[in-house]
Amino acid sequence: MKHLIANMKVAVFSTRKYDQKYFDKANAATGHELVYYENLLREETAQLATDCECVCAFVNDKLNRNTLALLAQGQTRLIAMRCAGYNNVDLEAARDFGFTLVRVPAYSPHAVSEHVIAILMALYRTTHRSHNRVREGNFSLEGMVGHEVFGKTVGIIGTGKIGALVAKLFLGFSCKVYAFDMCKNDELINWGVQYEDLDTLWSMCDIISLHCPLLPATKHLVNDETLSKMKQGVTIINTSRGALIDTAAAFRALKSGKLGYFGIDVYEEEDNLFFEDLSSEIVQDDLFMRLTTFPNVFITGHQAFFTDTALGNIADTTLSNIAEFESTGTCTNLVS
Ligand code: NAD
Known about the structure:
Shape: globular
Helix content: 25-40%
Number of helices: 12
CATH superfamily of the largest domain: NAD(P)-binding Rossmann-like Domain
Bound molecules: nicotinamide-adenine-dinucleotide
């Protein structure tokens, strides 16, 4: 990737060692001054960025009006999200304070689409439970009868970059694939994907995978009412954003058997949990902890994106976004 030369001071929030590794490598080409913070960006931590022209934030950082007001009192002009989604940024406040907001629109849709299949296969073939049993010398197959994906009816909600790849993967399993999106993808239609309205999709599908963004209109898209329209024993996979699902409603549906399998990489209250090692602490989220006890629930901690390719692309694109803004005052990956 061609980089423009720049040397902005950047406060990089929510960083872990793996982020630093990829950012340091990519920064050899851009020469920004990167200051890494493990802290989430919040009102309480915004002051860490006082002398930084740029703030680099991730999925669970909260850029609400108060946080942005504090950033505006310092040097910050640019907010560089190192993810695709920007649902945690108050866009109106960002505009009011004159910030430029940029993002990484795509870093590896393959990473996420393949993780959907990983979650589904774990649920359908209990591979995680087999692995544990075999390590303990337990070779019993009791309680592990699986399901085949072949021939299932699948519904994809949101057929953008990730959803389109997921649709193709399911076509590879010889599934019947239905989709819902306001923008229809002609390539998918040619491949045999059938666009339907949401009510039809809820009622027809054995497996439903969510790939639309979190917006006011999509919050709790899966709720008591929509669950009631689904097939008995339906499988739901969510790798998009946690709040697309009313988790309490999903919990009720799991208990009643309406929801047969529930695979999630994202959770609506995940910012209190994910990306932290809480193994020595008492987790206070009762709903989440109860979900972890269900045999038909499989949860990963927002790791669908987490591949070598994606981390490299995130670092490259974020740093070149910053360099482009520094050189031109705008950016190809601007959020308008
Ligand atoms: P995208 O912008 O390419 O596609 C989103 C699609 O959703 C678009 O086609 C859009 O028309 C459609 N859409 C918008 N509103 C809709 C609605 N109400 N109903 C149905 N469809 C609607 O985005 P993408 O790159 O495919 O990413 C999809 C989502 O995946 C992102 O919003 C992000 O939240 C999530 N994501 C998660 C991870 C992870 O690690 N778990 C990583 C990257 C992205």
